[in-house]
Amino acid sequence: MKRFIHYVSHSVAAMIGISVYILADTFFIASYSGSDGLAVLNLALPLYGMMNALGSMLGIGSATRYSIRKARGKDVNSFFLQALFWNAVFSIPFLIGGLFFPRQILQLLGADRELQDLGIPYVRTILPFAFFYMANYTTGAYVRNDNNPSNAMIGSVIASLFNIVFDYIFMFPMNMGMAGAALATGLSPIVGSAYCLLHYCSKKNTIPFGWQTPRFKHLCACCQLGLSNFVGEIANAVTITTFNMLILKISGNIGVASYGVVANVSAVCNAIFNGLAQGVQPLMSHSYGKKDNKALKKYLQYGIVTALLFSLTIVFTVNFKSDFFISLFNSENNAGLHKYAAEGIHLYFWAFFFVGINTLLVSYFSATNNPKPAFLTSLIRGTFAIVFFALVLSSIWQMTGVWLAFPCSEAFSLLVILYYYKKEQNEAKERA
After folding, report:
1. For residues 173-208, b (16+ Cβ closer than 10 Å) or e, as one string?
2. Per-residue model confidence as pLDDT tens digits over 237-264
3. A Pfam family this protein belongs to (predicted)?
4. Which residue in 247, 236, 266 sits closest to 46, CA to CA?
5. pLDDT class of 281 with cuts at 50, 70, 90
6. 358 Cβ neighbours under 8 A, 6+ residues apart
7. How far is it, in rounded angstroms, from Cα 220 to Cα 213?
8. Which residues contact 303 (CB under 8 A, 6 or more apart)?
9. How much is the average pLDDT of 202-208?
């Protein structure tokens, strides 16, 4: 239990730190540019979702494969550097898009001409930092899997503090506006990864830095175990993009700005469950690699109980303090924004009764080298279910239907995930 608490507490703190990057941007941008700035940031959030998705697939997938092979005494000499190499390769489209096509990207995301003009400096500044944003997942995941979750946590917290301080400095005293917010956010993962270097340079480090010609087969093997993370993260981008398009038609830019409030508070709550899943992953992977089924079952049970406690805390805190969260991002005291956001919070956040268990069980499939159900359940949960419920319910109840789509999607996904979990348990009994 002590080891579980150590890993999970540090991982949750680290993931909350990462989510604060965007939260700080939201607060300062809302103060600087009002509801239009908030709308721009919410339209740009899918870009973060894509970077997070690729970074987590490469970093966490590679680190999970590394942990399992290391526990079985197999060669892991080149895993870390290959993960960083593929981070660099996958970041190239973001670099090109940010430098040469920011307007087209914003247009594709649904921004009108006015929002495009406001958002171009932000997109042009943030996307060239894609490599560092993605590599931050790799450095943190390997440190956690090398028995040092404290280092990953502290690095994340330091990066978040840097982002908050320099968001203010760049936007206000230096008057850089939206570009300043993006610059502070882009530099933050560099700070976090730099702190992780303290572990890699220490005597505690057991991660080898061997180099081998990059192999596509190796990439696929690692990505297999990171696919659920990829789909889980890309689901945020899919959800935000789908909701933005629907809300633009129903209630315009004010509606999108209100969804920005809901999405940013939701991002922190999701980070808590992602932290839980990533914290217990090294423990489950190591137990699985050692074929210690008793320990594996114990860590999963601890995770489920913790997820339920987090769920209760989140749902009741957010519902009873909804006005506080809305006021953080409503500097203009816009009545329309408050109305939409209040309704959204009171409906949208019931989903978090299911999110924790869903996230944990998908991570369990990946941690135990069972990528197929991890991928399928993540795909159903993150794309098909949320899009289906959003389209159907919004056509019936307009904005109310949009807000209800997320809890309905997560409840349905829980049934699918439990089916695959029960099937996996039955197959394990038959093999025994």
Report:
1. eeebbbbbbbbbbbbbbbbbbebbeebbeeeebebe
2. 788 888 988 998 998 888 888 898 898 8
3. MatE
4. 236
5. confident
6. 377, 381, 410, 413, 414, 417
7. 15
8. 4, 8, 276, 277, 280, 360, 364
9. 84
Domain range summary for the chain, segments of one domain joined by +: 2-424
Q: Quickly count: other Cβ atoms within 10 Å of residue 148's Cβ.
A: 21
Side-chain-facing half-sphere of 338: CA atoms under 13 Å: 10
The CB density around residue 228, as the number of other CB atoms within 10 Å, is 33
The closest of 95, 103, 101 to 127, measured between CA atoms, is 95
Q: Dihedral of CA 325/331/337/338: which sign?
A: positive
Alpha carbons 343 and 358: distance in angstroms, whole number:
25
Helical H segments across 72-176, by residue range: 79-100, 102-108, 113-126, 130-145, 149-171
Distances (CA, A) of 71 to 74, 194, 246, 284, 413: 8, 27, 48, 11, 32
* Residues 157-200: tens digit of each pLDDT: 888 889 889 999 999 999 998 899 899 989 999 998 899 888 88
Tokens encoding 88: 């660099």
**Residue 342, exposed/middle/buried by CB under 10 A (0-12, 13-18, 19+)?**
middle
Give the residue carrying structure tokens 């917010």: 181
The DSSP secondary-structure symbol of 129 reads: G
Q: Which residues contact 101 (CB under 8 A, 6 or more apart)?
A: none
432 CB neighbour count, 10 Å cutoff: 6
| CB-count burial class (<10 Å; 0-12, 13-18, 19+) for 217 | exposed
Q: Considering the entire predicted model, what is its pTM?
A: 0.76
Which residue in 13, 49, 43, 183 sits closest to 109, CA to CA? 43
User: Which pLDDT band, with edges at 50, 70 and 90, does 432 fall under?
Assistant: low
Amino acid letter, 223: C
CA distance 135 to 16: 18
CA distances 223 to 61, 63, 74, 90, 310, Å, are 5, 10, 18, 13, 29
| C-alpha span between 222 and 54 (Å, rounded) | 12
Query: 398: how many CB neighbours lie within 10 A of its CB?
Result: 16
- Taking each helix axis from N to C end, the angle separating 399-431 and 386-397, rounded to the nearest 10 degrees, works out to 150
